[in-house]
User: What shape does this take?
Amino acid sequence: MANPSPKGIDELELIARLTRDLPANASVIAGPGDDCAVLDLGVPGHLVVFKTDALVQDIHFTMEIEPPRVGHKALARVLSDFAAAAATPVAAVITLGLPTRYDLAWIEGVYTGLRTLATRWEVAIVGGETTCTAGPVFLSIAAVGRVERNKVVRRCGARPGDAVFVSGELGGSIEGRHLDFEPRLAEARWLADNFLPHAMIDLSDGLASDLRHVLGSSRAGAEIRADSIPVSRAARHRCRGDDPARGPLAAALSDGEDYELLFTVASGNAVRVLDGWKAQFPAVRLTCIGRITSEPGLRIRDRQGLREVGEHGYRHFT
Amino acid sequence: MANPSPKGIDELELIARLTRDLPANASVIAGPGDDCAVLDLGVPGHLVVFKTDALVQDIHFTMEIEPPRVGHKALARVLSDFAAAAATPVAAVITLGLPTRYDLAWIEGVYTGLRTLATRWEVAIVGGETTCTAGPVFLSIAAVGRVERNKVVRRCGARPGDAVFVSGELGGSIEGRHLDFEPRLAEARWLADNFLPHAMIDLSDGLASDLRHVLGSSRAGAEIRADSIPVSRAARHRCRGDDPARGPLAAALSDGEDYELLFTVASGNAVRVLDGWKAQFPAVRLTCIGRITSEPGLRIRDRQGLREVGEHGYRHFT
Assistant: This one.
């Protein structure tokens, strides 16, 4: 279930228009355009990280889904953005838009999911708002947290020569992972403490799109290898079953909601990152998929050679 | 346009159920149940304040309203809660739920309203999220800010004997004020700097309900005087025109969305507060409407004597 964008104009164009000339102030270290906003509120040695996200019924979840999984997903998406910044979430507030006649058991189930995930990551739920809506249920969550000043990781730091890594396996998230994923907070923290990635993002729009976000922010390009992309079993399964016209590689490159980490480190650190990760997180795959280049654009190398990846992802690729 | 609550069970009961056993952590100074959450993130001398709120089309605004007023209202409601905590907002994030076919000019108009108010109060807009919805447009805003550790004001500090003040004039907000009000940030800051109110809240549910929130949190009661309630011209007008069955006093007591401040100070400070306020904010009325009592409950004194104010506001009062 990819994150849909309002039609009319392209979502990126809409965001570009809305974020033009937004008011800033001296506290803003990173504003619109990164996974999280980063603020200097005067905490010695630390920055404050701030993020919001929303789920809408029948777009991000359906009423057939067990309610705790809906609550889990709502908060996990926000925490995944904290992971991308190598930040530690501290507190969240919940806004709930409900129809006039709502199912109390459903809401309590959603809160069970929220509460369980928040407890696991020591995130306080410190308030919220309930309101009526004549439309689908919506659930908007904002969170604040902290990161050491010298450890915040953003999208914009990728350097030519960097190795590009992704955690986990990609594609086919709609088979279940989009509801049950665990945000990669521990992995991101470990990376920041040990290697300080140059750039990091969580994969929500799909590998190709999100890597493009990093490249755009970093004013760089990348070359990735088709045979190194870690394609998930769900992506292979879907491409055998429901959707044979789309290859598994295309799914891994373009499916949204993987909620894995993509990061870059200096190439000299690549082997140490892989070895350290394997020792620390033996159950989570980590793959080097390519490298950052000074030449702009995103290119992929496969048996036919090197080719440019089109602007609109990989739907026409296989 | 009062803030509607989901039906089924009472909104307060719903909130009580949902906020039961929420995870907290060592950073939480005030969690659910106050105007804002208050966090200790380690800023020397300061606490961090955190709040979210949402507007829904056809509940809090209609498409006939000029879009900048919608944007203004969305942010002003959040800033009004910062005023209630005597806090200074620093940064906000915006979540926008839009239909598949949206009107770009409308959204840009909303952002004009957001941008203008944010600029006036030096609030940075640092990000957000756009998403599709098949239902009415929604606009959820979260903000973070700061307050000196020794100046944060909450709902829970009212003490027997305190004088109870309200700013401005009450009732009939639906005639226009609910869209155009200026959050009482300057007034609240001045109060905190000069008098440190024992308790403060912004009037969103209506004077009687919001005063009850203060009394409940403070484990106290109050006695107010009917002839001292500052009834707005809009409330008088509505009660002459559209709605003759409801008296203007009842409107001032029960209409929502006044976005004025209600606060309590030690009675010995009452005259200095009034004099100082008049000098500082000559255009904004300030009225002492009664006093805090150790006896619980909310009572009102009028020509017929003293009577208890019913649980469900003043609709049956006049």
Summary: Confidence is low (pLDDT under 50) at residues 1-7, 313-318 of chain B. Chain B touches chain A through 80 residues (CB under 8 Å).
